[in-house]
Amino acid sequence: MSFIHDLKLKYKMMTIIEKLIVINVLVFISFHLINTLSFLFKLPSGFIYDLFVFPKEFNEFIVKPWTIITYAFLHEEILHIASNMIILYFSGRYFISYLTAKRVLTTYFLGAIFGGLFYMLSYNLFPAFSDVGSPTLLGASASVMAILIATATYIPNMSIRLMFLGNIKFWWIAAFLVVLDIIQIRGGNAGGHIAHLGGALFGYLYASQLKKGNDIGSWFEKLMDAVVSMFTPRKKSPLKTVHKSKKSKVSSTKTTLSRDKNPNQAQIDAILDKISKSGYESLTKQEKDLLFKAGKD
Questions:
Q1: How far apart are the C-alpha atoms of 175 and 183, rounded to whole Å?
Q2: Which residues, other chains included, contact 193 with Cβ-Cβ below 8 Å and sequence gap of 6+?
Q3: pLDDT value at position 201?
Q4: Which of 17, 23, 225, 234 is the most buried if burial means most Cβ atoms within 10 Å?
């Protein structure tokens, strides 16, 4: 139980980028475990992927509308997920610093939606794809490109140091990856590269509008808040209704309950300072319990 308790606390303390990486990795491991068990027992497993990957046919998408989001958490190969998560981690750190953590999910999900729509439209409009059969789309690349391009658009002249290359401006990296995707459309993964470009387009539009003071993703943030509130139970007040003449007594009761319910803020600040200096493992069991209780409250 203590191990689970520590894992929950560590997850709560992660940034939103780190949480997205954890979710992607857990989904990757889970699906591959299912595939391994299916192989060992000679059971069909392809239908599980089919439920969550994004199709090119509009009629199939209407039956499985959730796939325009779920495909952005699926990966087939280790190299695929590794490259996506590395880019997500490093570009996401700058994104949080300049565009705030609140906008990460908006960019990730809308980048996936733009990428999926670009993929579907391209495969149904361009004659070059008329004989490709029924391919499907999976991977976080469109979402990752949205975050990378949004960051590069918002801080184009920010320089980062790369091994053997020295200082490179952020927009150089972004431009190189976009050109690479355009060139590789004629290759074997045309749909994937087209989806990357869709995510990149959203990232560019989103950040360029933010620089002008327009938040084109605010509607999605409100939608997410509304969905979360639907599944968040409301806490009932522990106070009983009392007569108006007992105002001072009620005030005293509120103060006492508040003091009993929440740990002392000074203690929490001291624990957080200790973590920043010595790491989470330096905490005692009492300090971990206190921090966990504060997170639940």
A1: 12
A2: 181, 182, 184, 185, 187
A3: 97
A4: 17
